[in-house]
Every structure is written in C-alpha cells, then in structure tokens.
C-alpha cells in the first residue's frame, strides 16, 4: 500500500510482547504564541527542541512557511509539524495555481484540519496558523485531532500557560506593530524562563495586510553562551613532526590526440 | 452515509475468498510465491490485530467518494452520481496501462477532483518490488487481473 505502511505492525506487536518493554511516547516542550494587532498578525516561538530530558537542538526553527504570506508555528512532534506543513504548503500552492487566486488562510486551516482528522491524532501536530490574504489578517490554531480555534491571541505547547498569562494581562485591541512584537517576545520569554521544555531564543514572524511577511529569526537571544575565560586549545606546532613521507598513489600521464586530422 | 470508514474487523477469514493471488493449480489456495509475504502466512493474521489507523487510511478515499455520491443523489437525484460513476468507468476501461506504477491516471484524477492536490500516497508510492523479485505486481499480473484470468 502507498503512503503509510502497516506491514510490520503485527511483527512489532509480537516483538513488543516478547521483549522487556516498548518505547514510551515522549512529551515535547515548546512555547508558541500568535496574536493580532492593528493591521496584521504575528506568530512567535522559542527555539529549543527536546528529546525527553535531553536538549536536542538549541536553535531549531519552529516557524514554518506555508505560503509567502501564511506562516505556521508548530508544537508537538517536530517531524510531524514539519512534514504536515510542507505537504499543506505544496497543496496550497497547487490550489492557488489552479484557481489563479492568492491563497486564503481559511483554505489552509481547512486542509490542515481535514488532513489531521484523517490520521486520528497519530500525527502529533499542534499548530498556530496565521496569515494575511485579500480578506484581511487571520489567526487560528489546529490541534492534532483536527479541532480548531479562532482568537485574537493564542498560545500552544508546554509553555503555553506561562505565555498565556502574559498575553491575558497585556494584550488589548489596537496594538501597534512594535508593541505587538514586544508583547509576543515577552510571552515567549515567559515560556523560556518558566517552562523546562522551552528555551534559547525567540523567533518572530510578522504579517501585515498588503505587505510581505517579515521573518525575524532569533529576534531575541537571551541565552547567549558565555565565552570561555581561557583558551584551552593547543598552539600549532605543539606536537613535533618526527618524519614526513608522501606516497604517490597513482601517476596519470596524458597525451593530446588531434582527432580532426 | 459515513464520514469516517468503519473498522474492517473480521471474525472469519476464508481461504478461497478475497485472495489477491490465487494459485493456478488449486484456486482455493493462495499463491504464496506471488503473494510475496515471505512464505506461508497463517490466515489468522488477517483477523483483527491491525493498527487502528490502517482501515481508516485505506478506506478513506472510498468512504469520502461514497459520501459525496450519496449527497449528490440527495440533492440532484440519481442521474448525477450515475453520470459521474459512468464517466469514471469509461476512463478506467480505456486508460488501462499495466506499465504505469501509480494507481491513478491524470484523467481519473480530474474526474475524482484530485488533480490539484497531493498526499503521502503521491510522495511515497507503493513498492512494486516486494522482496527483490518483481512477481507480485508485474505487468502480467496486472493484465491477468484486468482480464479476470
């Protein structure tokens, strides 16, 4: 069968029943937020990627481009968020080429929720979709089972509670672009400091009506690594060269042949 | 009218029904060589014990198609789904190409409304070579299926 292969399911069930234990699902840590402001919408994310208690990547990108003016922040299984947004991005491009119109955010949301619903939550993708289209700025979130939310400000991931506390207390209608960027970065920073699964830097992507999206990678870097006080590198030439020999592995000789003659 | 495929739980499996590859000598037995399942597989493995997603993903397209046709029937009458099914049947009969790897042609995709969408099935097509030998789904097998030999 094409697509997902279930060929080894029965074998794996059998092996799992014979072995000591099966691998457990790991909870993933992330803080992502999205909020609307006067004339646009923006999303922001932290950049820590974890595998259980281990920090796998200190500066990963959690903001994905679906269309030039529709971006998506992903929490949950990193590979699933990446693969799902790429597939829906391709579909959105095909759809807009077929209809000859700019892609709509609602179309993206519909495609995402239908795809995730089909896989019954086995694709662990929790997404905040934001974008601008001819109908204005839109902000929505999709959960792994296919349910969706619409709001003026949203947060997802393990650090969503810390981020939502900041958004709840400081968001108001009619924020300016700069105020909104600072508020989103503050909300992500609340996740970075108060949630163990989130950390490192803040990524922001701003979408304003009628303008191209502005992706600000590492907008804030509150966790810059301290430089070492001393250098422990050995200077060049510390190890003495006792002898040196170069072996010619092959010798190539070429001779020009005039073909035209 | 279902939105979601029903789980295809089987309480009984018969050896002479639903076999993809039947033995030429004894049609009630499976052709284990062409089945490419790595030898004789117990029939009990077809009963239950499937991943909960399997029946859902495999039956998804067919269920959506059935729901769509049922809705067409309710809105426009029986002529509409009949026309669509007949058009699809014409394309399927005239467009048979045993050398094509993927299941659908472009004409079929247009009639099904899939011509401007992608899914995992397009990115990861079914393997035609199962265990090193291309006997399970080769040209001859496809022609035999087509001609119901």
From TrEMBL, chain A:
Its main location: nucleus. The keyword Nucleotide-binding does not apply. Its EC number is 3.4.25.1. Keywords: Cytoplasm, Hydrolase, Nucleus, Protease, Proteasome, Threonine protease. The active site is at 30 (nucleophile). It catalyses: Cleavage of peptide bonds with very broad specificity. The keyword Nucleus applies. It comes from the Eukaryota. This is proteasome endopeptidase complex.
Automatic annotation (TrEMBL), chain B:
Keywords: Chaperone. GO terms for cellular component: cytoplasm; nucleus. Residues 1-55 are annotated as: Disordered. Residues 1-26 have a biased composition (Polar residues). Pfam families: UMP1 (PF05348). GO terms for biological process: proteasome assembly. Belongs to the POMP/UMP1 family. This is Ump1 protein. The lineage of its organism: Eukaryota, Fungi, Dikarya, Ascomycota, Saccharomycotina.
